[in-house]
Structure formats: structure tokens, C-alpha cells
Amino acid sequence: MAPSATSGVGVAHLPNQRHKIVSKRGANFTLMVCGESGVGKTTFVNTLFTTGIKGQKDLNKRHAKQIEKT
């Protein structure tokens, strides 16, 4: 008896089975983006996922940090 092409059993079908599982459950992963200030890390992440995952920082506050006197 020959296996049918739609049965989804066997080593050849592992990628398809994995895709089905991830499609149903979703997937978690970690992404690390490195770079200097102002090179577009946040824009890259937001563009990669076509959404606003990480919001923009308030650029007006970047120079407002107080320096402690030592």
C-alpha cells in the first residue's frame, strides 16, 4: 500500500507539521538589535513586523537628564 501524498506522515512532512503547529499556537522568539543611537533600530523593528511594536522615545527628554554632583 503506497502512502498518500496528503497523509502528512514521515520525515519529508516534518516541516509542514511544524508549520501547522506554529500557525495554531504561535511562536515566541527573542530578537536583539544593536547599534548606535539614531541609526534606526526602532524603525527597523517596527518595519520588520509592519506594526508599532516599540514606540518612539520622546526626543525632547534625551538632554534633560540631571547629572549628579560628586
TrEMBL record:
It holds the Pfam family Septin. Residues 25-70 form the Septin-type G domain. GO terms for molecular function: GTP binding. Gene3D superfamilies: P-loop containing nucleotide triphosphate hydrolases. It comes from the Eukaryota. PROSITE patterns: G_SEPTIN, SIGMA54_INTERACT_1. PANTHER family: SEPTIN. This is Septin spn4. The gene is SPN4.
